[in-house]
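Person: Show me a sequence?

Helper:
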Amino acid sequence: MQLYQKSSNFDEGVKVRTWEEAARGFQYATNMARFTQLRAIKSKFQKECNLPEDLRTQDTFLLHKKNLEFFKLINDVRSQAETLREMASIQAEQGNIDNAITLYKQSIVIYENTSNIQRKAETLTMIGKLLANEKRDITTALKYLQDSLAIYQQLHYQEEVETVRGIITNIEEQKPKSP
């Protein structure tokens, strides 16, 4: 028997094969609602107690890591990719650039497998910016940015095309001139 579950955590009309999957989906939605409420309360408490930002960020990273485990368990690849991107962003903020790039690359693999090329292009741009600005690897950064630009051109996303072209121009200006 096939069911159709409709909620904010499922795409319209996603087929749910068993009652167990439907129950897990409901449990996930309930847990995410609780998680959001608890995170808001925790954030307010941390700010009131003047906890350092790095501790708040570290807690958020660990929560994302737990979410990633759950998304793998229920085979929610879209949420896995988004969670990996969030984890990468936190790592980048903390200065762990190599870890951030690794996590971004993992999300790209998922975006490729799910044909989400817009998110792939966005993530390629993020990697390119990190490589250029933090690692000073201009050549590799430009490769990632050119790949991103090609996707945006294919999608006819003119605003993003112009944005990435601007980033490329700025980075090319940083590139050492050959004699």
Observations:
- The chain has a mean pLDDT of 79.
- Residues 27 and 33 are 10 Å apart (CA to CA).
- The longest strand covers residues 3-5.
